[in-house]
Amino acid sequence: MALMEVTGLSKSFGGVTAIADLGFAVPEGEIYSVIGPNGAGKTTLFNMLSGIYHPDEGSIIFQGQDLIGLQPHRIAATGISRTFQNLQLFYNMSVLENVMVGCHLRSRVSLFSAILRLPSVVHEEQQVHHWAEEALAFCGLEHLASLSADQLPYGELKRLEIARALAVQPKLLMMDEPAAGLNDTETVTMQKLIRSICDKGTTVLLVEHNMGLVMRVSDRILVLDYGSRLAEGTPRQIRNNPQVIDAYLGGEVHYAVE
Length: 258
Description:
Structural class: alpha/beta
Strand order of the largest sheet: 6-7-8-3-9-10
CATH class of the largest domain: Alpha Beta
Helix content: 25-40%
CATH topology of the largest domain: Rossmann fold
Strand content: 15-25%
Number of helices: 10
CATH superfamily of the largest domain: P-loop containing nucleotide triphosphate hydrolases
CATH architecture of the largest domain: 3-Layer(aba) Sandwich
Number of domains: 2
């Protein structure tokens, strides 16, 4: 069953078409990856799915609800969370506090209750603390909770942003270049984390340039070329697709598919 269905999606900037009549469906409970050369429209697509850009045409249906026209915070409230290629963290806050910020969508306390410090507020603060600790533990960062975020190396900052995104318990996690800038060891850790996120029940929509990771972790792959759909299929089908090889993979078709 499709968790998200995209139909006839188009977006232009001036006279340049970034996305052209694009359609695809993200199956629930899978890792669905979007690949393509620089300028293929991947970031524009992610920005439309998360409400940063509004499409010129098309529909984005998530669990039966059309997301077109909704503001980013409204889209997030439907159960979609996102990480960014360029980290969006609070470096003057602790690791735990960064993740606690991500729990705001699960908050049910009113402003009036917060001002009066009613028992419900105290209880929810404790609950948010617990949710954040759980997300950190899942991402292997629980031992760093008290550190300032600016003390973490880059690879752990990547996982911190994922922990914050997971703290809201999303149904769909959109991940933008999670392995960018990581060394080989960190990339293996990231690959295992992405697989664990899906195994735990969160559908993953992944944009990533590391083809080794994409081929090993994905259930299905969509290939974009100049904003249009070039191919879609399993990692093995994509690896052996002549059009994809010519347009994107070139001679690099040796990636293992497990």
